[in-house]
Amino acid sequence: MKKNFLVSAALAVATTFGANAIAQDNETAVTFDQLLNDIRNNRYALTQEHQEREARFARERNNQQALLRQARAEETRQQQILTQLEAEYEENTQKIRDARSRLNEAKGDLGELFGHLQGFAGDSREIFKNSITSVQYGQREQAITDMIAKLDTTSDQLPTIAEIEALWFEVQREMVATGEVVSFNADVTNPNGESNNQTVTRVGVFNLVSEGKYLSFNPTTGIVSELPRQRDDALAGAENLATASAGLTAFKVDPTGPTGGTLLNALIDTPTIEERIAQGKEVGYIIISIGVIGVLIALLRMIVLVGMSAKVNAQAKSETIDTKNPLGRILQVAADNGSADLETLELKISEQILKERPAIEKGVNIIKIIGAVAPLLGLLGTVTGMIITFQAITIFGAGDPTAMAGGISAALMTTVLGLCVAIPMVLLHTIVAGRSKSVLAVLEEQATGIVATRSEAK
User: Fold this and answer.
1) Within 10 A of 349 (CB to CB), how many other CB atoms are there?
2) CB 367: neighbour CB atoms within 10 A?
3) Which whole-number Å values give the CA distances from 205 to 29, 209, 382, in the listed order?
4) Each residue of 89-111: pLDDT tens digit?
5) Can you tell me the mean pLDDT for 193-197?
6) pLDDT digits over 402-417, tens only?
């Protein structure tokens, strides 16, 4: 019984402490003594491993303490360095204050002079930047910018005499350039985007021309480009100036220079008649079309009425009846009704005059209608254009008065076209109507004379 108990205990201990060792051992214990030895060896190995681990932890803890002491020592050393650098910084700052104070004392009254010189240099820099003389003399702004930086009150430097004299020289050269007409070579960009080196003529600080065409200068990019559109009335002077070598040459100068001339650009950008007409869009073309139709009708009727009036006047002076004109047909009616009573004759003649009236007054009412409708169509186009303009203002705002003015100008163009058609139409209607009335007056006069002659004969 006791022996069985010991076996059970030994198996439990073996299972608890030596499972790993037994599992790793390929040979199976055959006796209880061997099993106990295996368990004892296993416990010893585990104890030794724990001791080594504790020793390693102790060593690492000692190393950490050493590293901590080393870091604290380095911190103390850096604090000492920081204190030293702060002291040096304060000392250097005081030295700078003392040096700047001595510099200001050395400047004396020159401080105010340098202030004026700084302002003058800044103004000159802007003039040089926007001047067309930069195309010939190159960029001059950087040197002036460096000198302005030295003239600043916070600067510890002073401009040299050479730098001040260079500014004076550039100002004098710019003044002389205002009265010069000189030629030089420069890169010019044409409207196609191609750049060519060609001879450029500078007229003072106002205009640049090359090969008989005006040029523009962009101060931001420094690019000289040919104006995409040229004034025809100014090209002759530009060509003469480009080819002239001496003497006086007529040339149209834009006094608003110096970037090619704002006035010249404004005149060039002014829309042509074709562009103005195109601004009227569909309504404008309709107005022009009915205007052309009205003029053609008026001219045709004038030709017809002039010929008819000549034939009527010739018939009035002739004793022979010609039925190819209105008066001849009326005389033929009077001759055909020679035996009729006076009242019947008068009615027949009046009937014939009524038949002749539509042919004489043909087209007069059409001209009158065109003269009345044209301004109404112009008003329609204007109202439509204003609606579109206000819609654009609603979407994009009124921040650009130029764009808004352009839209209003385009909208009013239809009104101009309507008036341009209506005014001549009214005049043509007056002329044509007067000519037709004169022919009718002759017919009525002759008809009344026929009736009066027949009445006297009875």
Assistant:
1) 23
2) 25
3) 116, 12, 43
4) 999 999 888 887 776 676 666 66
5) 84
6) 656 666 777 788 888 8
* Cis peptide bond prior to 258, omega within 30° of 0: yes
Residue type, 380: L
Residue with tokens 């003015």: 405
pLDDT, tens digit (0-9, with 9 covering 90-100), for 126-154: 888 888 888 888 778 888 888 888 877 67
Name the region of 203 (left: φ>0; alpha: ψ -120 to 50; beta: rest).
beta
Asked whether the beta carbons of 255 and 206 are under 8 A apart, the reply is: yes
Phi, psi of 109 (to 5 degrees): -75, -5
Report which residue type is found at 313.
Answer: N
SS (H, E, C) the chain: CHHHHHHHHHHHHHHHHCHHHHHHCCCCCCCHHHHHHHHHHHHHHHHHHHHHHHHHHHHHHHHHHHHHHHHHHHHHHHHHHHHHHHHHHHHHHHHHHHHHHHHHHHHCCHHHHHHHHHHHHHHHHHHHHHCCCHHHHCCCHHHHHHHHHHHCCCCCCCCCHHHHHHHHHHHHHHHHHCCCEEEEEEEEECCCCCEEEEEEEEECCCEEEECCEEEEEECCCCEEEECCCCCHHHHHHHHHHHHCCCCCCCCCCCCCCCCCCHHHHHHHHCCCHHHHHHHCHHHHHHHHHHHHHHHHHHHHHHHHHHHHHHHHHHHHHCCCCCCCCHHHHHHHHHHHCCCCCHHHHHHHHHHHHHHHHHHHCCCHHHHHHHHHHHHHHHHHHHHHHHHHHHHHHHHHCCCCHHHHHHHHHHHHHHHHHHHHHHHHHHHHHHHHHHHHHHHHHHHHHHHHHHHHHHHHHC
CA distance 164 to 144: 9
Q: Is the torsion defined by CA of 178, 182, 184, 189 positive or negative?
A: positive
User: Token pair for residue 420?
Assistant: 């341009």
C-alpha–C-alpha distance, residues 3 and 211, integer Å: 130
- pLDDT for the residue numbered 292: 92
Residue 117's pLDDT is: 83
How far is it, in rounded angstroms, from Cα 226 to Cα 68? 77
Burial track 77-106 (b if 16+ CB lie within 10 A, e otherwise): eeeeeeeeeeeeeeeeeeeeeeeeeeeeee
